[in-house]
């Protein structure tokens, strides 16, 4: 009789242990699935960040080129305005010279 009680308790403990193991197994599977999801999101984010960094570098390079072009165009514009002013002055001098000679 005592042996039977001990055996029953042992079976109960074993059944409880088995239930706990099943719960833990389910929890582990769930966490592993979650881990894979997070790893995928991490990889996706890393790729996006790399792409964005590359786009930023390209944008900076384009910006530098455009700034250089802008400075060159501003200088050319200034030179053209100076030439126009010089030509106007020459025309005025010619008109004055003709007006004074007649």
List the helices and strands and how they pair.
Blueprint lengths: L1 H100 L1
Structure report:
It is a single chain. By secondary structure, this protein is mostly helical. Helix content is 98%, strand content 0%. It is built from one helix and no strands. The chain has one helix spanning 2-101. The radius of gyration is 43 Å and the shape is rod-shaped. The mean pLDDT is 94.
Which segments are poorly predicted (pLDDT under 50) over 5 or more consecutive residues?
none
Strand content: under 5%
Q: Average pLDDT, to the nearest integer?
A: 94
**Could you give the count of β-strands?**
0
Assembly annotation: single chain
Straight-line N-to-C gap: 148 Å
State the helical fraction.
over 70%
Strand count, sense and closure of the main sheet?
none
The sequence of SSEs as H and E is H
User: Which class of secondary structure composition applies to the elements?
Assistant: mainly alpha
Number of continuous helical runs = 1
- What overall form do the CA principal axes indicate? rod-shaped
Gyration radius, rounded: 43 Å
Concise summary:
The protein contains one helix and no strands. It has one helix at 2-101.
Write out key terms for the chains shown.
1 helix; rod-shaped; single chain; mainly alpha; 102 residues
């Amino acid at each position: 009789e005592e042996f039977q009680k001990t055996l029953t308790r042992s079976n109960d403990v074993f059944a409880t242990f088995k239930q706990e193991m099943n719960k833990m197994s389910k929890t582990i599977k769930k966490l592993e699935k979650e881990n894979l999801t997070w790893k995928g999101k991490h990889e996706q984010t890393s790729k996006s960040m790399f792409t964005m960094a590359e786009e930023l570098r390209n944008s900076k390079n384009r910006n530098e080129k455009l700034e250089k072009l802008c400075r060159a165009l501003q200088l050319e514009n200034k030179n053209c305005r100076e030439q126009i002013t010089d030509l106007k002055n020459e025309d005025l001098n010619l008109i004055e010279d003709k007006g004074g000679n007649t």
